[in-house]
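hey can u run this one w/ 3,4-dihydroxyphenylalanine bound, need the structure tokens asap thx
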Amino acid sequence: MEALDRLSQLEADAPARIAAASDLESLAQIEAETVGKRSPLLEIRRGLGSLPDDQRREVGRRVNEVAQLLGSLIAQRRSILETAAMEEALRAEEVDVTLPGRRPPRGTRHLIDSIQQEVVDIFVSMGYTVATGPEAETEFYNFTALNIPYTHPSRLESDTFYLDYGEVPEGTLLRTHTSPMQARYMELNRPPVYIVVPGRVFRRDSDSTHTPSFHQIEGLAVDTDITFADLKGTLAHFARLFFGPDTKTKFIPHYFPFTEPSAEMHAYADGRWLELLGCGMVDPAVFGHVGYDPNQVTGFAFGMGVERLAMVRHGITDIRALYDPDLRILRQFR
Ligand code: DAH
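ok here u go:
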């Protein structure tokens, strides 16, 4: 009888196919083909009604038998494949929480930056505040307001980088020192003034002790009765904090257009005298430019090169080492 033969055939073939299903998709496919809606099993079941009574009973029993067998084989296979899929997913996502963490390499401040910070901190500890100004500056603030005459050689294009910003009174340039902030700050603030101005400056210079861009720290103290003794005491104190408590300093007469009198401070370190900074009493002409009354206030100013301080402290002989991207050089100064 045809239906019973097909059922026996199915019973004989299907278990091997089910057992061979290697993943859940192919098992679902086999399930559809053996016990699903389009399977021979269902077709036979639908045809039961049109069979003669004696056959219907026998075929019906076999249909249930085979359906039950295949159904349970498929369920077994499915649970095996599901477990395997779960294990595979867990393996793929495995995280070893006991592994040590990966440390990203840690950056450090550049020597120039840390020295600048150290100097600023010393003056902040004496009550100074920090002011910063523009690197692109006008000729007025960089030179004129500081009493620097039009004939001064530092105004030459061979010394200073000029910028082309079109029609600006007196033109624009990359500031050649941090001193312009003296004038800018005093214009906007009434005395007393106690500021330090760290910043980048630019000059047409390039050799073992000069780079076209370098750093300075400017200082300005203006009050009702500031004397040269205040200047000496403040800067000698700075030198002792920076180089050590026994550091000797001396002041040598010098000339700057914006201070009168002017001096260089030298410090005795490593058995020799080293020039550290320029300084002086603020010239009354500068007070005039910013609207301060030279009969009411006095003050002192100073400016120092950060690279120079770094070279003196660390015995660096070529300034360009500080701008070399070779980390082996920079790492020495962590
Ligand atoms: N601006 C000077 C320079 O770049 C340094 C300087 C000297 C600054 C004397 C001052 C000062 O404030 O009083 O060479």
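The chain has a mean pLDDT of 92. anyway lmk if its weird
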